[in-house]
Amino acid sequence: MTATQTPGPVPVSRAAEASPRARLPHLAAYGSGSLGMGVWVTVPGLLLLYFLTNTLGVSPLVAGLVLLLPKVLDAVVHPTFGTWSDRQARRHGHRRGMMRLGLLLAVAMGAMFAVPSGLTGLSAALWVGFFYIVGNLLFAAFQVPYLTAPSDLKVGYHERTRVFMVRMVMLTVGLLAAGVAAPALVADHERGSYVRMALLLGVVMVVSGVVAIRGVRRLTETCGFRSPDAEAHSTRADLALAWQDRDFRLLVLSYLFTGATTHLVLAAVPFYAEYVLGSSGLTAVLMGAFLGPAVFASPIWLRVSRRIGKQRGLLLSQLMFIVGTAALLAGDQLGVAISVAVVVVLGVAFAGLQLFAFSMVPDAVAAAEQRGSSRAGAYTGVWTATEAVGTAIGPYVYSAMLAIGGFAAAVDGDSVAQPDSALSAVLIGFTAVPAVLMTIALLIQRRCRLDRSVPLT
Asked: What CATH number should be reported for the domain holding residue 102?
């Protein structure tokens, strides 16, 4: 890579050094909200496709649509919620009201898995799809203002990364705990087990959300609050403004493919464990290997950011993910130990992908503010909409691979013999397809110049 392709380290000015620094207890309280977010991101992403195809008897293609269509709706909902969030911030000086509404998400998740025993196939898919839509709406009500909080703080370039680093560590704990606990709680693939799992993890979501709301209030009290533009704007005007921002647009498009890739891998883990490695019990092991490294990798990536900047750090993370997924194409020839080791590398890369991409959103907001426009909620709404669509596209692409391969659905976890074409689809969908998608993300991201234009204060 040449100097014209990726910016070098970003120097810290005296003004940036003098910017407020968030207190760790306040950061921890704020970051705790990601524990509950991690549950919602992990449980549907990890188990819903498998629940539909192997417990409810839904065909892979229909199951993929159940995961995709509610997320496509999010592409409209999230920007709208971003505009509403800005209006609430203008009126009340904070965005916490919407976050309180999002606490009802736990109820929707419980209902989503509480499919009546008489429903299978298409009718079961409709039940799950309805409550998945309701859950996504409530998740957006919490997520949009929650992720806008770092953009609202009057802190500098590296401090914004620090805020997201703490948030990422907490998110990783949530992802890891849910990724390990949820499969263990539904190991028998019975419907009742899925309901109990959802209710148990729902309690975690509510408690973490309440603590996060208090954390947001403490952060804005100590670090200051960047008020949105005094003049209210329509959702369409906010979308147009965000899309006209070249660097933000490239960041969003790159993350669309990044998010699709990582959530494809997440949805494919149970299939890879059972049909390639030969044991469904390895699902929890692979999830731990994928999510666990972020606990120690996130602070390391923070140091990398200080040395080479977020742009280069993000490109490095994407490259690591490409190499890792391509290596897994060898399938069971690698053996369990080497496969798990490669997944650990993917986990380290995943931590960087999340930290750098998310912490560059407040940088884009700060750069826009320097140009005379401050609409943090609008930018965050576009970002979370992109994330939501990416999380749906990934599993749908994988379900399409399964359908092309002739994968046979099952009811209540019954064992069904799969043709060789289906087994090949399971492997290729987990390896070659993610490598291609992440390559596209890297090619888009390398054109972004945000690190060069971002203000440090």
From this structure: 1.20.1250.20
